């Protein structure tokens, strides 16, 4: 602490210090002084909350859209349900618009146009990220459902199950194994995309890093520190995903 104060005073006076001493002072300012590490910790908590909340919303939307589109595509020739056709059209427009426009633009529209009177920017970020993720999850799930043998669904119906129960008990559990890697990648992408809600005032890890930088007048260590935290989280979740995939493969062999 004493060395930090001495070196900090020398830097203020414009006296040149060795590189490692300046780096130490800047590191101390960014993470240790005034317990600023707690701000990063709070930022990580907010980032994980936003990620999980948006993922839940995205999976719910994705399952709904995927089931509607799969049901429409699997209709027998000459027997088309008009209501299902309208719902399928809405789902196609939703997927096309969301996947065809940048996430940042969607956040700006939601934050400064649709919900311009709201100050709950983190909630707006969760909603926008969830809607965006839902479009990608829908295509992931739909691909998994369409890749299964149609005989699986026919077997369920032959047992007296309706369409919803057949999907819930037979088709979706089998499709889950094949789509797990893609869903894991979507979760990791969503985790990194939470940094974008800073642009509309949402509080997460980048917001915490910028708050520290505004007090220390030093950008490098807060931003590099936040990048390393994101990298650590991604590596952790990638490792957990690999464990889950390995256990699923082992259960299939048994």
Strand/helix succession: HHHHHHHHHH
The geometry reads as elongated
The fraction of residues assigned to DSSP E strands is: under 5%
Q: Please give the number of β-strands.
A: 0
**Number of separate helices:** 10
Mean pLDDT: 85
The main sheet comes to:
none
The unreliable regions are none
Helix share of residues? over 70%
Radius of gyration: 24 Å
- Measured between the Cα atoms of the first and last residue, the distance is 59 Å
Q: Which structural category do the helix and sheet elements fall into?
A: mainly alpha
Architecture blueprint of SSEs:
Layout (H helix, E strand, L loop, with lengths): L1 H11 L6 H14 L4 H37 L8 H19 L2 H12 L6 H27 L2 H9 L4 H31 L11 H12 L3 H34 L1
Give an overview of the whole structure.
The chain has 254 residues and is mainly α. 81% of the residues lie in helices and 0% in strands. It contains ten helices and no strands. It has helices at 2-12, 19-32, 37-73, 82-100, 103-114, 121-147, 150-158, 163-193, 205-216, 220-253.
Write a concise keyword list for the protein shown above.
single chain, 254 residues, mainly alpha, 10 helices, 81% helix, elongated
Task: Describe the structure in brief.
By secondary structure, this protein is mainly α. It has helices at residues 2-12, 19-32, 37-73, 82-100, 103-114, 121-147, 150-158, 163-193, 205-216, 220-253.
């Amino acid at each position: 602490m004493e060395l930090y104060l001495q070196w900090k005073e020398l830097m203020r006076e414009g006296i040149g210090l060795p590189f490692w001493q300046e780096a130490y002072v800047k590191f101390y300012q960014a993470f240790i002084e005034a317990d600023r590490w707690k701000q990063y910790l709070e930022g990580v908590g907010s980032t994980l909350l936003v990620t999980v909340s948006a993922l839940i919303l995205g999976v719910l939307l994705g399952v709904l859209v995927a089931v509607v589109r799969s049901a429409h595509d699997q209709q027998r020739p000459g027997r088309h349900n008009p209501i299902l056709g309208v719902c399928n059209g809405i789902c196609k427009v939703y997927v096309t618009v969301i996947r065809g426009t940048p996430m940042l633009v969607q956040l700006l529209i939601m934050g400064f146009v649709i919900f311009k009177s709201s100050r709950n920017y983190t909630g707006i970020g969760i909603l926008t990220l969830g809607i965006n993720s839902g479009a990608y999850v829908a295509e992931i799930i739909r691909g998994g459902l369409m890749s299964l043998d149609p005989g699986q669904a026919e077997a369920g119906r032959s047992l007296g199950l309706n369409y919803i129960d057949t999907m819930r008990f037979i088709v979706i559990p089998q499709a889950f194994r094949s789509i797990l890697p893609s869903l894991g990648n979507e979760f990791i992408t969503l985790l990194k995309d939470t940094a974008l809600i800073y642009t509309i005032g949402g509080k997460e890890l980048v917001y915490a890093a910028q708050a520290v930088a505004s007090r220390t007048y030093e950008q490098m260590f807060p931003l590099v520190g936040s990048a390393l935290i994101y990298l650590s989280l991604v590596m952790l979740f990638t490792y957990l995903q690999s464990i889950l995939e390995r256990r699923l493969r082992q259960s299939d062999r048994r």
